[in-house]
Amino acid sequence: MAVVASAPGKVLLTGGYLILERPNAGLVLSTNARFYAIVKPLHEHAEPESGGGEWVDVKLTSPQLSRESLYRLSLENFTVQCVSSSESRNPFVEHAVQYSLAATHGIFDNNKKDSLHRLLLQGLDITILGCNDFYSYRNQIEARGLPLTPESLISFPPFASISFNAEESNSENCKPEVAKTGLGSSAAMTTSVVAALLNYFGVVNLSSSKGQDKENKIKDLDMVHVIAQTAHCIAQGKVGSGFDVSSAVYGSQRYVRFSPDVLAPAQAAVKGPLEEVIVNILKGNWDHERTEFSLPPLMNLLLGEPGAGGSSTPSMVGAVKKWQKSDPQKSQETWNKLSEANLDLENQLNLLRKLAAEHWDVYKCIISKCSTLRSKKWMEQATEPSQQTIVKALLGARDAMLEIRSNMRQMGEAAGVPIEPKSQSEVLDATMELEGVLLGGVPGAGGFDAVFAITLGDSCSSHVINSWTSLNVLPLLLKEDPDGVALQTADPRTNNIASSV
């Protein structure tokens, strides 16, 4: 019986750079662009035990990259040996398999271990698929002579083949690099694989049945979260903030990072007993903070790909850290201003959610009116106090975003990295002048990966799409979807799931 799990991609609205340090918070939106992992038995019947049944056959298939890798997984120390591979290895999936199995083994009693052992004798067949929005199809669109529109993206089949960046694949020694859109594909992929495996092994039950105990559901998600964070950090070779994995597990949220020390055992355990290590990590003090957050009602997230080539987040983070050390006073001032502006935007958006809940008809009416007008005209629509309160919150959110952008630009200039490059500034300034646009910015660490806009209602989204197309920005198909990791009923390729749905 196959288990299919999916995990969403992310857009970091606020908290770029600051989110790396506790107790700074970030607002992260999960999206309807999802990564899928399908886990099923590799062999129809249990394979005869070879060498005491200490090895498990694992096949990993990535149809979009036309890649297939075969592994042998040790049941004694959970090491992975690559037997054959059509292309470069996938450390994220390898570590997800290792840590998921080691954790399962560490938690189960002897009876359950016997059942697990019998299941594993059939091998593991893992397939990974990412929605098209995770990857850049810009080159193919331009090569076909199509316009940079959502309609051109829709013309691609779901889970379309991914082309390599032309520059990267020229050299024989150069590992082909897939062009991405910055939605956190490695975090979503790792999370989906961990969730599918833990469900397949019977450790967690992620099915969304109504009678399911909420407390147990959270416990199961917490288990997926810790194992996915561990596998992702070890595969990356560093302990990041973890917001991308957290949103892949739990969905849209306000996030404060965990203390990096909690993963020290995994970093030190290159040759140690993995089962012990992961059990200790599961018991560790995971002190991250996660609060429910999503966009206020009747607001839409739009994401665009500028096509200036992606940015390397680690090297940009490194440059900012170097600047912080070289000019502690000035950098702290910028840091504090940025932190205040982030908090201001968070407060305004939360106020709008509250006002929507308390004065729905008034809220709906004002959003509808403002969606057809530029922000300068919004206050004219508010003729009574409750309407004015809503418009003030809308304008307050805009001001906070402008302040965030200003401080991000200053930080980038001081550190010598393009956090909001001039080309992005021009696009964002033009976007924020359009009717019904509340916010515009560069997500996460910034750079050339993407731009985002938050619009009021659906009617004005077409203005943004047309404007971006004219500015050589490809509007992507995704939307905000506040839900995190989930089980699917079938292989997504049979359902024709596309991110436009």
From TrEMBL:
Residues 180-251 form the GHMP kinase N-terminal domain. GO terms for biological process: farnesyl diphosphate biosynthetic process, mevalonate pathway; isopentenyl diphosphate biosynthetic process, mevalonate pathway; steroid biosynthetic process. Pathway: Isoprenoid biosynthesis; isopentenyl diphosphate biosynthesis via mevalonate pathway; isopentenyl diphosphate from (R)-mevalonate: step 2/3. It comes from Momordica charantia (Bitter gourd). Its EC number is 2.7.4.2. The keyword Isomerase does not apply. This is phosphomevalonate kinase. Belongs to the GHMP kinase family. Mevalonate kinase subfamily. GO terms for cellular component: peroxisome. Signal peptide: none annotated. Keywords: ATP-binding, Kinase, Lipid biosynthesis, Lipid metabolism, Nucleotide-binding, Steroid biosynthesis, Steroid metabolism, Transferase. It is an enzyme of class 2 (transferase). SUPFAM superfamilies: Ribosomal protein S5 domain 2-like (SSF54211). One of its GO terms (molecular function) is phosphomevalonate kinase activity.
